[in-house]
Amino acid sequence: MSSFRSRQRSQAGRHFIRPAAEHEASKPEAPAERRAPVQREAAARPPRELDLFAPCPRGLEGVLARELAALGAERVETADGGVGFVGDMTLMMRANLELRTASRVLLRLAHGRYRDERDIYALALNVDWPRWFDVSRTIKVKTDGHGSGLRSLDFVSLKVKDAVCDRFRRAQDARPSVDTRYPDVRIHVYLDAEWATVYLDTSGEPLFKRGWRDETGEAPLRENLAAGVLLLAGYDGSQPLLDPMMGSGTLLIEAADIALNRAPGRLREFGFTELRSYDAVAWEGVRARARQAEKPVAPLPIHGSDRAVQMLVKTRHNLGRVGLAGAVTLAQRDVLDARPFAESGLIVCNPPYGVRLDEQDALAELYPQLGSWLKQHFAGWTANFFTGDLRMPKLMRLTPARKIPLYNGALDCRLFVLPMVAGSNR
Ligand SMILES: C[S@@+](CC[C@H](N)C(=O)[O-])C[C@H]1O[C@@H](n2cnc3c(N)ncnc32)[C@H](O)[C@@H]1O
User: Fold this and answer.
1) pLDDT 10s digits, 198-218
2) Is residue 1 over pLDDT 90?
3) Residue 303 pLDDT more than 90?
4) What residue spans carry the region label Disordered (predicted)?
5) What separation in angstroms does the CA of 200 have from each of 21, 51, 127, 145, 184?
């Protein structure tokens, strides 16, 4: 896997069909107002080949690359925290609708070396923004950096916003407004120590927002991370699946979507519909094909439980929101009272991980009991625990077959894979 920086370097040679000035590094330019106005392009025909990048939770790059290859993406290349690929507008729409593990789908518009904010301004000014969206659209610019020596990433965002507005002013004597809360168009800037990349966000809201969850302020597992955990656990939609600490049911819902071949983005909207290149007929075709590939909702070998009654209520509510009422079997019970409902299958769960000392003590008491419970009842099953508590297998007195590093935001976590073969685990 290449690092983000080396990937950016290697991508410097990637091109899609568009005027060279838009994607090559440029020298700082003279102030916009002293230069000749740019002619507005009559038609907003998109380039046939788009240079795309899908960020994802760290640790899921390989899974995401396989998802992209299955969609028919070309030049799929993993980096730290995401996957680069090439495809046309249809692929970009399908990626937004169908990828389970991506956080966003970004379109790379400019990439170049920088020394200071002026270079980044010049890079962004070189992009033909009026070609991509109408001046009536509101915008938001966000900058992230890794090793950039610049004082303020917010100041970089401000300079890029200025560049976008200046480019519009030169073309049509008007500029887009900024809306930091609900922008129509999001622009992302990524900096490493030497290189700046300017992306247009084709997703809008991040893709873990599937469009069904009530925004309650609590922090369940992000949907794309839950899907990634399931895919890393080898879940293919056919095996019996149990989450005995289901919380709000995120893993159960993602599993059911995999089992029913339902596109994770089917209930939400996307940022690309705000772009000039948006083709409503093509988009409806993409959505219709995804709907045709769905299996009908029926009872599934997916079971979930939690000891907290309010979690049962919440999961039942969430299942109803996604049209899965009755498809998943639910119960209120302690994890230690859960029993297998098939000869073999997968336990996939995200146990609580304590931050406070007393929580950690309680977990240290639970883990040996979990180990005994697995050995006693779940021979033939494989348990997959996603946790930030790295003590877990040792305290369960079990040896994981795999310890897969995975990040939940900045939190260093593991997916511990424990195949329960009768009599083989101590
Ligand atoms: C980290 S949360 C799971 C979050 C879930 N993956 C989601 O996305 O909403 C852990 C869950 O384990 C449950 N839990 C804790 N101890 C339990 C036990 N002994 N038996 C059953 N459930 C338990 C908690 O009620 C909580 O809902």
Assistant:
1) 999 999 999 999 999 986 656
2) no
3) yes
4) 1-48
5) 17, 11, 11, 16, 11
The pLDDT of residue 288 = 98
Which residue's alpha carbon is nearest to atom 5 within ligand 1?
247
Q: Does domain 4-38+46-201 have CATH number 3.30.2130.30?
A: yes
Over range 178-197, report the average pLDDT.
Answer: 97
- List the chain domain ranges: 4-38+46-201, 223-260+296-419
Ligand 1 centroid from CA 245, angstroms: 4
CB of 242 sitting under 6 A from ligand 1: no
CATH 3.40.50.10090 fits 223-260+296-419, yes or no: no
Length of the chain: 426
Cβ contacts of 154 within 8 Å, gap of 6 or more = 143
Compute how many other C-beta atoms are within 10 angstroms of the C-beta atom of residue 403.
14
Summary mean pLDDT of the chain: 89
pLDDT digits (tens, 9 = 90+) for 372-389: 999 999 999 999 999 999
- Select from 246, 303, 359, 374 the residue to mutate for testing ligand 1; criterion: most ligand atoms less than 8 Å from CB: 246
Looking up tokens 């969609």, which residue turns up?
A: 71
